[in-house]
Amino acid sequence: MVHEMPKSHKGSSKMKSKPDKSRSDLDVNSYTRKPKRWGSRSIAHLPEEFLKRASEVGIVSEENSRSATYFQVDHSVTAEIVQNLFQDKIEVMSTKKALKKYRWFKDYWWKLINADTDKFTALAETRWDQGYFIRILEDQKVDFPLQACLFVSTDNLNQNVHNVVISEPGSEAQIITGCTVHPSVHRGLHVGVSEFYIKEDANLTFTMIHGWSQEFDSRPRSAAVIGDNGVFVSNYMCFKPVKSLQMYPVAYCRGVNSRVSFNNILYASEASYIDAGAKIVLQNEGSGGEIITRAIATDKAKVYARGFLQGEHGGSKAHLECRGLLLSDEAEIYAVPELLATSQGAELSHEAAVGKIAEEQIQYLMSRGFSEDEASSLIVRGFMDVSIFGLPKDLENSIKQMVDITAQRAL
Amino acid sequence: MTENVLDVRDVSVNIQGKKVLENINLTIQQGEVHVLFGPNGSGKSSLLMAILGFPSYKVTSGEIFFKGVNVTRLPINERVNLGMSVAFQNPPAIRGVKLGSIVNHLVSDSNKLAEITEKLRFPPEFLQRDVNLGFSGGEVKKSEILQITAQGGDFVMLDEPDSGVDVENLQVVGKVIDELFKERSGLIITHYGYILRYVNADEAHVLINGTIVCSGKPVRILGQILNEGYSWCMKCPKVIKAHQK
User: Fold this and answer.
1) Residues A263 and A398 in one domain
2) For A181-239, what is each residue's pLDDT tens digit?
């Protein structure tokens, strides 16, 4: 189903302010700021329940299957390791360290995101708790993924990280980021500011998996700028319940032929409130991008799936695709696609379809001998299919396992 | 004694309150293959859907027996598990559900699967595609036949296996279907009858306006239809009588 662009923006902007307003009432002073300190250690030396949770968001404890590992527990950095083979290809350290080490680092600090944007960015500036700096050096092709884990182990904690990723010209890399909490953590607030600099001819795939808990709030604030012929792929997945999650990363395709893809898979269950979107700004000849969202809402969950394409340059092209699947009458999915063209020759398009599982699909599978439940489960799993994302095989397999478990739980 | 595989007795069917089939009687015995002819919209596919038990095809009167079991109120998958299978004409695309995941569910034996895919001249990577998504006409037919072969039911219904297929693929599909019916009974819906070049059918029925108006030797009936079109059937006294009702 292809909708036409609404004639007036009034309706959607009014709606947009409604949920944000009610949810930004979070009292940022109601959380603890004094967690236990953690000394540095390898991932394998973290408690077992840490490893289990981390593995559910794509972080492996066998560090040699990753080119580098950054691990942060609460406000402490426990690991910032680059494997020997990759020492001259990449740099990984906390942003606090990077700010001390490099004079030029300030040129990448709060340059894509304004600290005054909202109270969460302000919080990240005034109460800043580390975060990772990852730099892939010029022309380096890193064939093993890097991994970064932001872990909350203290109940009711406020964790504010600020990350910076620089893909130097001609570099290629995959980063896996997992954000999650200890099983004893119910409430908390995670704020994550991330700035991505993809320089000319660089290629970065960034995959982020979130696994929060039912009373936990999360506010990622991300922005990326992409240079000539640069490619940025941002995959985001969230399968576990969360109290509220609100994010709206933006990518500026500043260079000639720069490209970005946002792929989001959202599974919202219980009373989760997820307001997730992405924005692409096309600023040069041949720049292009796509936003693909698959959202499932069950129980009493609410999902706002947003997308904004802005074409500022002729010869730019972008597409937005949102598919939503409702598995409960009490759940809600609101797809909000927006297109803004300010230059002739900017080609912007979108498709959105929201609904329940199609009866004809279930009946078709039943005619192959599947029971109704088996058929629904197969369709839900297929809906969250990640094989198109081109992820590293081990990550793809572990995500498939998560999807299988999620689909089973769903029905 | 030959047994009835399928026995449709006085069945009438409604879709959303509208009558689409009336007093259908159809008996297919073990080892027989029957053909169902009829103009577009005459109710051929509806009959298939009703036999399979699609909920929107509501049986308002009559009963359907399959291998002696009254299946009139059984859900689709239970009928299928008794040995029915169907190759659809326009199956729905399901994003993310690989043809391979369906087929693997149906056959646990991977050698057997390889054998079938080879026979159908199916490249193995085809199994990695989302089922029916962007399939060509020929690919749909092959995928459907692959699935019913994997299912292993002994009663097969084919909905227009010869429509939308080019000549070369018709030959491939026709041969596999012919082989399929060496061990199975079945019912074939066909508009033009091309598939009968490959398959020996035992009996044919003509369905017009939701009623079976005529039954007989497939070759003879097809010959008449090809020569004179369904208008020939419309002149049949039985059809006129049915209309007057």
Assistant:
1) no
2) 999 999 999 999 999 999 999 999 999 999 999 999 999 999 999 999 999 999 999 99
pTM of the model: 0.87
pLDDT digits (tens, 9 = 90+) for B22-60: 999 999 999 999 999 998 889 999 999 999 999 999 999
Q: Which of A356, A381, A398 is at the close of a domain?
A: A356
Contact of A389 with chain B, judged by CB distance below 8 Å, is answered with no
Domain ranges, residue A47: 10-24+32-356
Q: Given strand A172-181, what is the order of strands in its sheet?
A: A76-82, A68-73, A146-152, A172-181, A203-211, A231-238, A259-268, A288-297, A317-326, A347-355
Q: What is the β-pairing status of strands A317-326 and A288-297?
A: parallel
Q: Which residues of chain A have a CB within 8 Å of the CB of B98?
A: 382
Cα dihedral A313→A314→A315→A319 (10° resolution):
70
> A133-143: per-residue pLDDT in tens?
999 999 999 99
Q: Are A296 and A410 in contact (CB under 8 A)?
A: yes
Name beta bridge partners: B86. Answer: B157
Question: Taking chain B (245 residues) in consecutive chunks of 10 residues, what is each chunk's mean pLDDT?
Answer: 87 96 96 94 95 96 96 96 95 94 85 81 87 92 92 93 87 89 94 88 94 91 87 73 60
DSSP 8-state assignment for residue A386: -
Rounded distance between C-alpha atoms, residue B189 and residue B207, angstroms = 10
* Same domain as A327, residue A191: yes
Length of chain A: 411
- A42 is a domain residue: yes
Number of cross-chain residue pairs from A and B with Cβ atoms under 8 Å apart = 66
Q: Which residues pair with A259 in a beta bridge?
A: A231, A288
Q: Domain spanning B1-82+202-245 has what CATH number?
A: 3.40.50.300
Mutate to test the interface with B, among A265, A351, A364, A378 (most CBs of B within 10 A): A364
CB contact under 8 A, B95 and A383: yes
The SS3 assignment for A202 reads: coil
For chain B, domain boundaries:
1-82+202-245
- At B197, is the secondary structure helix, strand, or coil? helix
Q: What are phi and psi of A58, to 5 degrees?
A: 90, 5
Q: Mind listing the pLDDT tens digit for each residue in A257-294? A: 999 999 999 999 999 999 999 999 999 999 999 999 99
Q: Are residues A326 and A402 in the same domain?
A: no
CB contact under 8 A, B106 and A382: no
